[in-house]
Amino acid sequence: MGWDCITVLCSSEPGDQRALARRLIVEAAAELGVRAQVRSEASGQPVISGSPRPLHVSITHTRGLVAVAVTGLGAVGLDAEPLRQLDAIPLAAKWFNAAEVRWLGEVEPGARSTGFLQLWVRKEAVGKALGHGLRRHGLRREVPLPQEPERMAPVPGLEPLAVTAQLWQGGHLLGIACAIQAPILLR
């Protein structure tokens, strides 16, 4: 796919998550023909050097997963959550906007936890792409509702920023946001 996509690499290897994330960034850059070096800014944000064009990167880690997103297309955000049962409606009422709470209420009860997490990872990924995470009312920020089949969709009011949620190996949801809609290479 190359420079016109978002490369997302995931690993469930145990060990040092920072070292694993750096290795995944180098692997993703290598797929673009870049011999990358990775350093961290004072904020902790990874920076890739050695590329003929700017590369944007986002890292996430959670129980059992480290993942990185790398692209030359612009700002990128990545979040991951393990699938699990939640008391979805009360949590949504506390954190999400009214339209999202209504949508979640219409979801089959057995799928509400997944629906909640699909919204959550979208919001986290958008916040990371914007550079401020969930601060500035990030959980109330409107994101596109889950759809079938799942695909990148514009974030209302922030177009052309787009976001999606993807299932990884049946155990985690990944939220992926990028400055523009683009194909995703997920491994």
From TrEMBL:
* Gene Ontology biological process terms in this record: lysine biosynthetic process via aminoadipic acid
SUPFAM superfamilies, A to Z: 4'-phosphopantetheinyl transferase
Limits of the 4'-phosphopantetheinyl transferase domain: 75-136
Q: Name one matching Pfam family.
A: ACPS
Q: Keywords assigned by UniProt?
A: Transferase
- Pull one GO CC term from this UniProt entry: cytosol
GO MF annotations, alphabetized: holo-[acyl-carrier-protein] synthase activity; magnesium ion binding
Q: Which family does it belong to?
A: Belongs to the P-Pant transferase superfamily. Gsp/Sfp/HetI/AcpT family.
Q: What is this protein's name?
A: 4'-phosphopantetheinyl transferase domain-containing protein
What is the source species? Rhizocola hellebori
